[in-house]
Amino acid sequence: MTDSIMSKAATMEIPINSNGDTGTLPEDDSLEQAAKLQWSLDEKVGSTRGTRDLQQVMVSGPNLNETSIVSGGYGGTAEGIIPTSSIKGPAVRYNPEFNKRIPVTGLGSNMHHSSSSSSMSADDATRGVAVEKIESVKKWGMNTYKCTKQMISERFGRGSRTVDLELEAQIEVLRDTKRKYQNVLRLARALTNHFYNMVQTQHALGDTFADLSQKSPELRDEFGYNAETQKLLCKNGETLLGAINFFVSSINTLVNKTMEDTLMTIKMYENARLEFDAYRADLEELSMGPRDAVTMARIDAAQQQYQVHKEKYERLRSDVTIKLKFLEENKVKVMHKQLLLFHNAISAYFAGNQQQLEQTLKQFNIKLKPPGADKPSWLEEQ
């Protein structure tokens, strides 16, 4: 049908007028309708074929990374060809069921890999911390067991202990000295409290005498003398209280700080001695057993632990010896000064020598606090 229509169109006569111009063609409705029908048929067939080709290309066609894009007009040079592998962007997959394009990108997989790797590293770090804690608890448990065993053996007379007779004697002397100095400190504080109460009583008594001297004209002179005497005693008593407080403060520093620091080092030394004896006994016990491969490995490990604790024990023993020496020198120096202060202040006070008492405080650089300095201010009381 199509061929007949096209042949008819080709054999049609075109009338030409006398001037050589084409004349007006008579309208041929059959030819126009045939052309329109042919055009509609071609459009339907082409669209159907194009849709099928597009589906086949998107489903099983070549990889987009292997294709290229041509830039420029027809017959251009090869410089206009751009490989699609260099174009960055999400890939597209065609779904023929829904006639849609579904983007496929590697970002999700990369994020999944990065998150999984970070989670694995965090798990490894947590696992490492847990293993370290378990190992530390295990070592602490073994060390506690060995030391407890050694302590019980020493207490029941079954185990041997390392003894430094000279150092042990010095430690015992220090502990006895601390007990005696604590007693001196306790008595000095009691004296301070009693003397403070006496000074406060003298101060109140002097104020009472002064008030009575104003209200009793017939005994004005007698009350006035006693008021002046109590005020003078109160002033000297406050000076003596300053000296005694300085004495108490120095003894407290010597006993509760200097001696206590040395005793803490001694306690560490005794713990190191106990650990050293525990690992020494463990090494001796292993050395007396069979000498197979497993036992030899345990002996080597015990030998290393024994050497470590031996070095620790010797180091702390040297520290204790040095601290005991310096403590003795410091104790003699401090007590010589404080005992001289206490003697001179007490003697001057009870002798009624006010100038000597004040000179004693100047000699030892003791500054008295003004009256009411210990009381909190009205702002601090709020």
UniProtKB/TrEMBL annotation:
A Pfam match: Arfaptin
Cross-referenced CDD domains: BAR_Arfaptin
Alphabetically ordered keywords of this record: Coiled coil, Golgi apparatus, Membrane, Phosphoprotein
Residue intervals of the AH domain: 162-362
Matches recorded under Gene3D superfamilies: Arfaptin homology (AH) domain/BAR domain
Keyword Hydrolase: no
PROSITE patterns linked: AH
Principal cellular location given in the protein's record: Golgi
UniProt GO cellular component terms: cytosol; Golgi membrane; trans-Golgi network membrane
Localisation per UniProt entry: Golgi apparatus membrane; Golgi apparatus, trans-Golgi network
Region (Disordered): 1-28
Entry's Gene Ontology BP terms: intracellular protein transport; regulation of Arp2/3 complex-mediated actin nucleation
PANTHER family: ARFAPTIN-2, ARFAPTIN-RELATED
Name of the featured protein: Arfaptin-2b isoform X2
